[in-house]
C-alpha cells in the first residue's frame, strides 16, 4: 500500500493531512507579504520590522515548547489545538476587520505565535496515529503530511501574483487568511479525536514543566538539534540568496525568482512522497547526509550559474535534496523523544531557530568578506559538515 493510500484510508491521518494542507495554504497566503506590510503598509520601517521579527520568533519558540510540554503533561491535545486555532483566527480577524498597526502587531507578536503551535500539534497527532504502524510506514506518513503542507505553495502563490497584477491590495490576504483559519477551526472541532478516546495509548508524561525543560538540555538532544539546524540553514540561505543573485544586474528579475522558487517547490512535492522509497535501506542520518551532498550542488552553484541558462538545471538537486532535508528531520526529532510526541514536535521550532541564527551569521560573514558566492559556500560547508557529524554520531 502506498503512503498516500495509507493516509487517505485512516480518518485521523486524513485529518492531519487536511489540516496540513490548509495550514500550508494559510502560510503561503500571508507569509510572503508580512515584510511588505510591516515596512510599507503599516510604516514600521526596517528597524521596526526587525524588532517585530525578533520578538515574534522568540515568542513562537516559547509558545511551541509550552504547548508541546503541556500537551504531554495533560494528554489534552484537542483542547490545546483548538485554543491555538482560535488565537490564530482572532488575530487574523482583527486585522481583516480593523487593519492598523495595533491589530497587526497584536497578531504578529502575540496571537500569531500562539496559532503557529498548531503546526507541531498536527505532526504530533500524525505521529500518534502512525504509532500503530510498522516503523517503515511512519516516515512515509510524515512525508505525506509534510508534502501536503508544501503543495499549496505551487498553486496559491501564482494565484496571488495574478490577483495583485489585477489590482488587489496587499491587505486582501487577511480576509482570505481569516477564512482559512476558520475552516481549520471548524474541521478540528468536528473531526479531531476526543482526548482519551483514541485507538492508541496517550499517557501523561508525569514530568513537571521544569523537568521537561531540563530533559531538553541533554547534550544528546542539543547537539542533534544544532546539527539539524545547520543542515536546515542551507534552505534558509537559498531563500535569502535567490532574490539577490537573480538580480536585474545580470538580466534576471522578480519573474525569474518566482519561476525558480515555484519550480523547486513544485518538484519537492513528488520527491517528498517518494522519500520512503528513495531512502529505503539506509538510516535517517545517512539519508540526510546524502541529501545534503546533493543540495550543496544547488546552493553552491546558484550564484555562479545565475546569469546563464544552466541555472534551471539546479532545480533538480534543489528539490531532490530539499525534500529529504525537509521531511526526515521531523521523524528524527520526534524519535528523540518518542514517549512525548508533543514535546518532540516542538523540537522543530528549536531546530528552525538554530538554523535561522546560523544562516544569519553565515550571510553576514560571507557578504562582509566577499559577497553572495562566499555566503553560499559557507552555508554548504556548514550544512554538509553538520550532516556528516550527525551520520557519524548515529553510527557510534
Automatic annotation (TrEMBL):
Membrane topology: Multi-pass membrane protein
Alphabetic keyword roster: Cell membrane, Membrane, Sugar transport, Transmembrane, Transmembrane helix, Transport
Gene3D superfamilies xrefs: MFS general substrate transporter like domains
Gene Ontology BP annotations: transmembrane transport
InterPro entries attached to this UniProt entry: MFS_trans_sf
Keyword Endoplasmic reticulum: no
GO CC list: plasma membrane
Protein name in UniProt: MFS transporter
Originating species: Neotabrizicola shimadae
Amino acid at each position: 500500500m502506498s503512503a498516500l493510500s495509507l493516509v487517505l484510508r485512516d480518518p485521523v491521518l486524513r485529518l492531519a493531512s487536511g489540516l496540513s494542507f490548509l495550514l500550508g495554504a494559510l502560510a503561503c497566503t500571508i507569509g510572503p507579504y508580512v515584510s511588505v506590510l510591516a515596512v510599507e503598509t503599516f510604516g514600521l520601517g526596517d528597524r521596526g520590522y526587525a524588532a517585530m521579527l525578533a520578538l515574534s520568533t522568540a515568542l513562537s519558540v516559547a509558545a511551541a515548547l509550552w504547548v508541546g510540554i503541556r500537551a504531554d503533561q495533560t494528554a489534552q491535545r484537542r483542547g490545546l489545538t483548538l485554543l491555538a486555532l482560535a488565537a490564530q483566527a482572532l488575530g487574523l480577524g482583527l486585522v481583516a476587520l480593523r487593519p492598523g498597526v495595533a491589530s497587526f502587531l497584536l497578531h504578529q507578536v502575540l496571537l500569531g505565535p500562539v496559532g503557529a503551535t498548531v503546526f507541531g500539534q498536527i505532526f504530533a497527532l500524525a505521529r500518534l496515529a502512525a504509532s500503530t504502524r510498522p516503523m517503515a510506514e511512519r516516515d512515509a506518513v510524515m512525508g505525506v503530511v509534510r508534502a501536503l503542507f508544501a503543495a499549496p505553495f505551487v498553486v496559491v502563490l501564482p494565484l496571488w501574483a495574478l490577483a495583485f497584477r489585477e489590482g488587489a491590495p496587499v491587505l486582501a490576504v487577511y480576509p482570505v487568511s481569516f477564512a482559512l483559519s476558520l475552516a481549520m477551526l471548524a474541521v478540528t472541532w468536528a473531526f479531531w479525536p476526543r482526548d482519551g478516546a483514541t485507538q492508541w495509548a496517550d499517557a501523561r508524561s508525569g514530568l513537571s514543566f521544569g523537568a521537561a525543560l531540563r530533559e531538553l538540555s541533554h547534550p544528546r538532544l542539543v547537539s542533534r538539534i544544532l546539527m539539524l539546524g545547520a543542515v536546515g540553514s542551507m534552505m534558509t540561505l537559498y531563500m535569502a540568496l535567490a532574490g539577490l543573485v537573480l538580480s536585474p544586474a545580470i538580466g534576471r528579475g522578480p519573474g525569474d525568482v518566482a519561476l525558480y522558487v515555484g519550480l523547486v517547490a513544485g518538484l519537492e512535492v513528488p520527491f517528498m512522497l517518494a522519500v520512503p522509497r528513495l531512502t529505503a535501506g539506509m538510516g535517517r542520518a545517512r539519508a540526510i547526509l546524502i541529501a545534503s551532498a546533493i543540495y550543496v550542488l544547488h546552493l553552491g552553484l546558484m550564484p555562479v550559474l545565475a546569469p546563464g541558462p544552466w541555472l534551471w538545471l539546479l532545480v533538480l538537486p534543489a528539490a531532490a535534496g530539499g525534500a529529504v532535508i525537509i521531511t526526515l528531520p521531523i521523524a528524527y526529532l520526534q524519535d528523540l523523544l518518542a514517549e512525548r510526541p508533543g514535546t518532540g514536535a516542538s523540537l522543530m521550532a528549536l531546530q528552525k531557530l538554530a538554523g535561522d541564527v546560523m544562516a544569519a551569521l553565515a550571510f553576514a560573514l560571507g557578504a562582509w568578506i566577499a559577497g553572495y558566492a562566499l555566503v553560499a559556500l559557507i552555508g554548504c560547508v556548514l550544512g554538509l559538515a553538520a550532516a556528516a557529524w550527525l551520520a557519524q554520531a548515529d553510527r557510534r
